[in-house]
Amino acid sequence: MSVTKIPVAGLALSDSFSGVLETNATFVDQAIFGPSVDGKSWNGKWGVESLYSSLMLVTIEDAGADTQVNIWDLTEQSAGAPSTTPLGTVTLSGDATPTSVAACMGYIIVGSEDGTSIIDPHSGSWAERTAGYPKSLSTSTLPVLADNDVVYVCAGLSDQPPLDPRTGGPMPCFGVSYGTGSRCGSLIKYDGNVWDNNGTGEGCVISGGKILISRSDINAVISSGPIDATIADGWAGTVLIINDFPYTFDAENAMSMQGDFLANASASGLGLAKFNGLSGTGATTPSAATVTIDRTYNTGYMVGDIRGAWLANSATTDRSYKANTLTENGTVTEAAVASGAELMGYSGFSDSNNLTRASDADWDVIGTGSAYMSIWFKSTGESGTSRLFGFANSGNTVRFGILLQADGQLNCLDDGATASVETFLTGVNDDSVWHKADFVRVSSTERYAYLDGVLKNSNTTDSGSVSDSGNLPFGIGIDPSGSGSSAAASTLALARLSATAPSATQIRQMYDAEKGMFVASAECLLQSGSTDAVLDVDVDPLTGKVLVTQTDAITIFDGLVVDSKPTVNSGSSEKGKLWGDLRAEQNSANAYVTAPAVDQRQVNEMVRGLASDLPAGPDLSKAKAWIRFSMASSGTINGSYNVKSITDGGAGLWTINFGVPFKSANYAVVGMAPDDAIMGADAANVLAGSTTVKVRDNASSAYDATGNYVVFFGELENE
């Protein structure tokens, strides 16, 4: 293999390497892990030679009656090939049907028909751990699993994990999904408790201090509240994505997440979701921008309560779950948006060639609420005012849409019962270049217009209600009535309508992710030659790229475009993992690794060092007392440490009584209340054995609310 070496200050470069770790047709799952991945060293060391390295791969194999677990060094190579000698091998006796594997802080969790098994090296060799925390669990251990049929496992960190005395680093948490029984999954918390959730599970992941579980019974991904605050079975599951809105493909085969970005592997294709802080509650406040991709189409990002996603490699098909199919009047021209690109654009609009749909309840009763339109366009210059897309009644007294004027300006219309409101995007927008227009109506008195991800104009004029039930036909490239104002000089693609208003940050992120679809030779579809099914998906923690595994194709997406297409090695692909330029592949014949032409060991240590030096935020493991409480029923304690009781003093005053008092009143009190409330300590009543806090609203009146936190730092009397 010929490799060009580029000198980099501080790095000794080595040849890239690739090859087979082990030839075996019985691999089930794999995971990349190690101190580099966690950003923390284990046992206070940079590494233990011959025991573990900074970057490793764990594979699990079905050995018939047992499960075989191998740990491989991904920093070791010889003569251009990876080391084929495992750092450790553990046999899990009796685990006849392994299903999944994950790892964090050196702890490997394996799921099977017999529950979960924990393996780690922290006692001097890779071995199964059956006592303490974490440990192997089943329905016959203490604590108990809800079911032994574990189909998926995950591992990760909460927001404020306690320190692990074995490693000196944060204590991880784990999650499981069940294939049978009444529980969809469980959180195995760092305190040794197992908290269950109802339903039927498919996959799980820990990210952002929460556990997310894919539920097959409702085709949804749900999220827990903060792991630190989860203290009971049946924890409230927030619906993040579902088979209506926010909508994307299910995660029945696999799921992967980094930060607030989720990727799902589905039999239908690839599903992506970008969350707005993991805070959505399904139909109430949808927070996700989502994408569906198969071999035929790529929707681009759909926001929240999607009402239609058109011009995604079809002139008429609505790619959203709403199925609002358009009528093609005459013939609209379809052609690649750029030479060799996979995404199609649509042009040739006229009075006789256009796309329309009759008035529909999905948009003809918006009222004074939110609405959002987005479309990509390229124009050579319209001779008059031309409709890109939108809806309107016959007299144009009620309408919502985006127009391109003869002078090159865009005009976003929000005409309601109170006033006709126009929001202009000045400048030359008919320059034969692809642009993205976004028109966001937060309400009848707040709207924003963006071009190419940048805010260009806004206004607060009250347009009133945009509603005319049964009388608001929809059109693309034409007046909604079906004639006049045709976009004769424009090519259009990816038109989307939603009843959810995205944020400015989401607008920019969506533009950045989609713009690569509009360049020459851009690929944006699944690359299998035979199937839409995605078997595995992995979000790279270093780059955010998405590794997609199909039986006959391996594809790496960057944003919504194909970054690269690694060659499938012998056999059919099954699993794949990504760590920067390092890629692990599992197929029906072997486990395969491809590593970049750098000293991977040194890169790993640099990454880990950077992660370790990031601001850690408040460390609750150092708090001497804390409480989360609501004000209902004279003060309900939702969770606490070193607090024996709370007393309602009336008028927003609450006295918190400690289990072990402080040495003096000179300790720190940190309080947090909901956004519309103010919390502070009553200075005259900060005592060694108790503290009185007062909670007020912005008008300084007593406030009654849930979600109050108080944390205390100092020295206790017994220290």
Please outline the helices and strands.
Layout: E1 17-23, E2 27-33, H1 35-38, E3 56-62, E4 67-73, E5 77-78, E6 81-82, E7 88-92, E8 100-104, E9 107-112, E10 115-120, E11 127-128, E12 150-156, E13 173-178, E14 183-188, E15 194-198, E16 201-207, E17 210-215, E18 220-223, E19 238-241, E20 254-258, E21 261-266, E22 269-275, E23 288-293, E24 302-303, E25 306-310, E26 327-329, E27 333-336, E28 344-347, E29 354-357, E30 365-367, E31 371-379, E32 386-392, E33 399-404, E34 410-415, E35 420-425, E36 435-443, E37 446-451, E38 454-459, E39 466-467, E40 474-476, E41 490-498, H2 504-514, E42 536-539, E43 546-550, E44 553-558, E45 561-564, E46 573-579, E47 582-587, E48 590-595, H3 600-612, E49 625-630, E50 636-641, E51 643-650, E52 653-658, E53 668-672, E54 677-686, E55 690-697, E56 708-713
Antiparallel strand pairs: 1-48, 2-3, 3-4, 4-7, 5-6, 8-9, 9-10, 10-11, 12-13, 13-14, 14-15, 16-17, 17-18, 18-19, 20-21, 21-22, 22-23, 23-24, 25-41, 26-29, 27-28, 29-40, 30-39, 31-36, 31-41, 32-33, 32-40, 33-34, 34-35, 36-37, 37-38, 42-43, 43-44, 44-45, 46-47, 47-48, 49-50, 49-56, 51-52, 52-55, ...
